[in-house]
Amino acid sequence: MEVFQVTESSPQARIATSKEKRAKRTSKAFKSAQDKSQTVKPFTSRFSDDINKAINANRECLVQAESEMLQLEDSFEDEQTFIEKFASGDAKDVVALNVTGTIMVTKRSTLCTAEDSALAQQFDDSKWTEQGCSAPRVMEWTPDEVSTWAKSIKGLNEDFSVMLYENDITGRELLALSFEALKVMGLKRVGTVALLLKEIEKLDKSSRDIVTLIEHSPYCFGKMLDYLRLKQLHSQGLLAKHPALPIVCDSQKKRFDKVVKYYFPGESAKFILG
User: Fold this and answer.
1) Who contacts 245 (Cβ-Cβ below 8 Å, separation ≥6)?
2) β-strands 211-214, 94-99: how paired?
3) 32-76 tens-digit pLDDT
4) CB contact at 8 A, 182 and 196
5) What is the pLDDT of residues 147-168, one digit of tens each?
6) Closest to 196 in 3D by CA, of 235, 232, 169, 228
7) What is the pLDDT of residue 16?
8) Which residues fall in a compositionally biased region of kind Polar residues (predicted)?
9) N or C: which end of the chain has fewer CB within 10 A?
10) DSSP 128
11) Average of pLDDT values for 176-180?
């Protein structure tokens, strides 16, 4: 039996290794890799034409598949980086805005993109601590904090705070307590149950009402906010190109300019208006 060893005739025709490919993240690098895969030289001329064609066709398919796989790996790494950066940060940085009846949610860091703007000053560290972070975040409470809250309720026996602590009731579980659950825990007196459920309802409402009122057009403020979000992503390297200025319909242009100049007075308005 005759044994053949197939070897490459041109080292220059090799596709770059995975490590090298990951270092080349531009379209030019990918185009170069594709050009190489299209100019692969035959493995050998010792075989018949049919065998040479079959070998070369298979090799070209493998080279192309490798190139596509490396591009997918790079794309996956980019997406992973995007998700990690986009989802990172403290939950306390999340801001809920009531823009004339329309709820919008964003990050405080997005609102502070332009540090010298009136918008950034409204949500700077000191003012945001006063407006937002001081509100109770019940869902994050530990059993100790739940017990302390129960002790502060007028008319509620202190034994109940001990009962909550012994059952390891967290803030999330506290908000889920029902009449039946309280009875199972041993709370029998109807008046006490009613008092506690009312206090839990008030606590739940206060923990949800962490909303900053914005008395401007939702359309105009939303356009401005979307642009700030894109600017933030660009500053983090998650957008390759600088975002284009907001496109506003003709009927809203004057109002949009007014909203922008309210939050970005003077020359700073050019940050969004151009």
Assistant:
1) 227, 272, 273, 274
2) parallel
3) 545 554 554 545 566 778 887 888 788 888 888 888 888 888 887
4) yes
5) 998 888 888 888 888 888 999 9
6) 169
7) 40
8) 1-12
9) N
10) H
11) 89
Token digits of residue 209: 């009402």
Amino acid letter, residue 176: A
Query: Is CATH 3.30.710.10 the right assignment for the domain spanning 94-135+211-273?
Result: yes
Structure tokens at 34: 């594709």
Distance separating alpha carbons of residues 18 and 38, to the nearest angstrom:
19
Instruction: Classify residue 96 by its DSSP letter.
Output: E
Give the closest residue to 200 by CA, choosing from 133, 134, 138.
138
CA atoms of 227 and 110, how far apart (whole Å): 10
Q: Which two tokens stand for residue 132?
A: 């937002």
CB 235 within 8 A of CB 113: yes
- The more confident residue out of 134 and 248 is 248
Say if CB 143 and CB 169 are below 8 A apart.
yes
Helices (H), 105-178: 108-111, 118-122, 125-128, 143-151, 158-166, 171-176
For the chain, the structural domain boundaries read 11-83, 94-135+211-273, 138-208
100: left (phi over 0), alpha (psi -120 to 50) or beta: left
Residue with tokens 């914005």: 214
Q: Whole-angstrom Cα distance, residue 23 to residue 167?
A: 54
Q: What predicted TM-score, i.e. pTM, was given to this entire model?
A: 0.50
Shared fold status for 94-135+211-273 and 138-208: no
Specify the CATH superfamily of domain 138-208: Transcription Factor, Ets-1 (1.10.150.50)
Based on its alpha-carbon atoms, the radius of gyration of the chain, rounded to whole angstroms, reads 31
The full 3-state SS of 162-216, as one line of letters, equals HHHHHCCCCHHHHHHCCHHHHHHHCCCCHHHHHHHHHHHHHHHHHHHCCEEEECC
